[in-house]
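for the recovery benchmark. tokens below, seq after
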């Protein structure tokens, strides 16, 4: 069980990650996972479960805040997009959790390493070249099929990492459905929340979920730090050029990916 000192460290670590994520419109869960493993010495599965719990709290706060810039009526007008991707996402999340619970620990580290590398690449290219006019397909049926398939993939990835998956949902929504990035961000949150609830429920059926009860104070304080940091970061959004910040965040993910690949469990 983590002591009060670790809780305080968690608050400031969450705050720093939240600020960095808020500066570019991210939740920061991809950076929080390596921090939980390396700074707080948690094993991969425990870190994933705690990260998922924190992501739920952060998204739970972010969605109503987002409604101030994207009215609920706009979400209702795009329920087709939400339910199409959500259908695939909940399937992917369910099987993603099952996969994470069954594989050996050292294999899980390797998978996390690959997924962090994948997200770093997506993040780097996403911020440079995403335009609503760049539709991949112009067929409604094909859009629906692709939306479900990508939803399954993203839901599985998000479940394994314990993240919301916005970095993957947002470009998917823009490229398939041609909506602007602000609306895509809100639609992403609307998809992420129920998907994370499904993954959270799936994890709760495993004995590893007990870590959340033994570290509930640490988890809560870390999440609060992340929320406050994300809010502070959002206040300074635009003051630091994404052209400078995004590569730095990508480098952090690449380093985390390498360290995760080489990771050995502490004795």
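predicted aa per position
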């Amino acid at each position: 069980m983590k002591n009060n000192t670790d809780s305080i460290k968690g608050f400031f670590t969450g705050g720093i990650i939240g600020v960095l994520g808020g500066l570019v419109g991210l939740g920061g869960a991809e950076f929080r996972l390596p921090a939980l493993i390396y700074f707080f010495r948690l094993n991969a599965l425990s870190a994933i479960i705690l990260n998922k719990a924190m992501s739920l709290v952060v998204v739970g706060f972010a969605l109503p805040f987002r409604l101030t810039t994207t009215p609920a009526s706009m979400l209702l007008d795009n329920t087709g997009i939400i339910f199409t991707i959500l259908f695939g996402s909940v399937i992917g999340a369910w099987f993603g959790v099952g996969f994470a619970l069954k594989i050996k620990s050292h294999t899980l580290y390797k998978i996390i390493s690959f997924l962090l590398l994948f997200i770093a690449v997506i993040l780097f290219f996403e911020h440079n070249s995403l335009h609503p006019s760049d539709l991949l397909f112009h067929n409604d049926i094909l859009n629906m099929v692709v939306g479900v398939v990508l939803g399954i993939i993203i839901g599985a990835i998000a479940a394994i990492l314990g993240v919301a998956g916005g970095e993957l949902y947002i470009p998917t929504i823009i490229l398939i459905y041609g909506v602007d990035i602000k609306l895509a961000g809100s639609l992403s949150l609307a998809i992420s929340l129920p998907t994370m609830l499904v993954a959270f429920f799936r994890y709760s059926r495993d004995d590893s979920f007990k870590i959340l009860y033994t570290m509930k104070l640490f988890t809560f304080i870390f999440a609060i730090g992340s929320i406050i940091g994300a809010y502070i970061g959002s206040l300074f959004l635009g003051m630091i050029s994404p052209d400078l910040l995004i590569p730095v965040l990508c480098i952090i993910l690449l380093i985390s990916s390498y360290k995760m690949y080489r990771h050995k469990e502490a004795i």
